[in-house]
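Interim report, section 4.2 (structural modelling).
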Amino acid sequence: MTHDLVLVVDFGGQYTQLIVRRIRELNVYSEMVAWNGAAAAIRDRKPSAVILSGGPRSVLEENAPNLDFSVLEGIPTLGICYGQQLMAAALGGEVRSTSHREYGFQTLLEQAEGSLVAEMSSPEVWMSHGDQVIGAPAGFEVTASTAACPIAAMENTAAQKYAVQFHPEVTHTPSGRALLAKFIQVAEVRQDWTAENFIEEQIASIRATVGDGKVLCAVSGGVDSSVMAALLTRAIGDRAVCVFVDHGLLRKNEAAQVIDTFGTYFNGNLKAFHEHDRFFGALAGLTDPEKKRKVVGEQFVRVFEDHADELSGCDYLAQGTLYPDVIESGSPTAAKIKTHHNVGGLPDWMRLKLIEPLRWLFKDEVRDVGRRLGLPDEMVDREPFPGPGLTVRIVGEVTRERVQIVQDADWIFREELRMAGLRKEIWQSYAALLDVRSVGVMGDERTYQHPIVLRAVQSEDAMTARAVNIPFEVLERVAFRIVNEVSGVNRVFYDLTSKPPATIELE
Ligand code: XMP
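Predicted structure of the assembly:
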């Protein structure tokens, strides 16, 4: 890529990914790099600017995460929280550990004219720190303070070094974006990273990589693989061989919808393999969540093996891996397939090479790319759906009957959410089936049946999540309808747990 790069050095902060996102929102390409690989990355990649993240440690500790500041010479640098303390310590300032942790909203008492903080129209800032800088290094001006924090911001414009104790990347700092925008401006970073450019560059890169070969695009109907398939199709036409495995573990009517939508938007360029028997056969008797997941992954591979003739000539496999997956896998360069994805591993005979054109993007950026590629809203705005499908929403054994119960309950729940106008604020919602039974009474008869759990969460990239505040009447109606319309269910729960400590899926 030929764009300017802003490297965000991660010192283990809880908001580091958010910094990357905020910088990208300014149309600047940004990536995260772990602190211990940062010096080498800065030397190799010559970023136009560097941001040092927050982190849970203390710079006063022995062996605290560190960075050789000589690599930052001549590079505009912004330190945030731990990054500010590290900058102060490295450049001759003074850092002190305080007896209490300062956490929450603070107000900037003054904002020095012409400084980065002067851009902030709101003085409210979000703080979360134990240590603080009490002496700025020589050459630095203190540009803001709060009641509890004498050096809430400092800068040395001649050296192009800037630092803040608060977190401009979180939405709790209302004018944080203005500060980041000013930093990008004073650092003279070009703001030319857009979805259109991304599409053009990826198309060129896919064509250069694939030559006149064929690419197997495994699509699930989900956003990521749909956008990936659209990009590949745009780049190499029907040499992108789109394959959809209908495993019987999707939501009600979803398989037919996927085939229909793909048929319309990809000129019928989709091979659908209907494999319910295979998947239900392999899942019979299994209750362990990881085993179930693994079996589904393995069966995908078997499907490809059994259809080898139709797929012959494919040299590459395209996957919809996203940047959070890459970050979580720990190595930004390793082409690692997670059990998380639809394809649970590559069979030897295929010897497919991987293409992951979306591996630099966050979910909302993928959606943007999808829209610009002309995909319909019904595809782009779809909720994320796990590769193993309803398997992870059925506690205990997965059978056709139990899948049907979940599908029917899920259908009712989502229909009611749609009718109540709540879908827009929901990141993910679903019904799941538990493996316990409880007593009920229906039509004067005692029942002893299974409960359905409803889950609806708000989230940004699924790393954290909160239960959606669904009006009681809506929940009550959903519960009433499920118990009355879905046989085998006599009780309905709504899951209020956030992530962490819970996860979004039950398994
Ligand atoms: P959790 O349950 O870990 O889910 O909070 C985070 C996000 O990942 C999805 N998810 C999966 N996706 N294979 C997938 O492709 C899986 O095994 C899997 N487990 C969870 C989940 O739907 C949510 O969006």
